[in-house]
Amino acid sequence: TNAPEPLLDLKAGGDALLVAKLVEAVERLESEEAPPLVAALDTSTDTVVVLLHQSGQCAALPSFQSECLTVCTWLRAANVPFKTLNHKLVLTGSRFPMVELGDDEFGPSENILEKLSRRLNRNLDEALTPDQKLLSYAMASTVEHTLGVAHRRWCNENRGQLLRAYDLDLKRALKRSVMPRG
Q1: I need a surface site. Which of 63, 106, 118, 162 has the fewest CB within 10 A?
Q2: How far apart are CA 37 and CA 135, in angstroms?
């Protein structure tokens, strides 16, 4: 029978399988057109658009930071229009995700989802049972501890491919961060 292949089987070398799946997904998605990224707040429309600031995101893959995934998933589930701003070079002191909604800015130290729920009048957790809320937390933790670890390991082992995937000119990025502005 054709049983679905498990994504992660720790006894059968799950990390290697997970990394292989990541590489396969990267190769498949590299051939597709990258989604457009926004450089500034879009004021051409009357609808409210949430700007989601993320770091370390390849144009073809979602962020592997559990906080970014949580906010992105919440925005999609709440059917809130949003645009992603990709910050390829993270400066010290910069923490992500960050959300802009009009003139308001919600940072990572605050509870972004609570503030968005109040501001947009959309509480997705209202109908959830305590078990479902616990499952939501467990899924975010699983992503952070398994997929995130495998992604970091792959990044450390394949730095050349990583720089190509993130389309990062290392010389220019380092020169920009070291050179004084003025």
Answers
A1: 118
A2: 32
The pTM score is 0.52
Residue 36 gets which letter from DSSP? P
How does 119-148 read in b/e, with b if 16+ C-beta sit within 10 Å?
A: eeeeeeeeeeeeeeeeebeeeeeebbebbb
Using CA atoms, how far apart are residues 33 and 78, in angstroms rounded to an integer?
Answer: 26
Instruction: State the Cα angle at 181 between 177 and 182, rounded to 5°.
Output: 165
Phi-psi label, residue 167: left if phi above 0, alpha if psi -120 to 50, beta otherwise: left
Segments in 31-169 forming alpha helices (H):
66-77, 112-120, 130-142, 148-157, 159-165
Crossing angle between the packed helical segments 112-120 and 66-77, to the nearest 10 degrees: 20
Between helix 130-142 and helix 66-77 the angle, nearest 10°, is 130
- Residues 106-161: tens digit of each pLDDT: 877 568 888 888 888 887 777 778 888 888 778 777 877 787 788 788 888 988 88
pLDDT of residue 112: 85
d(CA 18, CA 7): 7
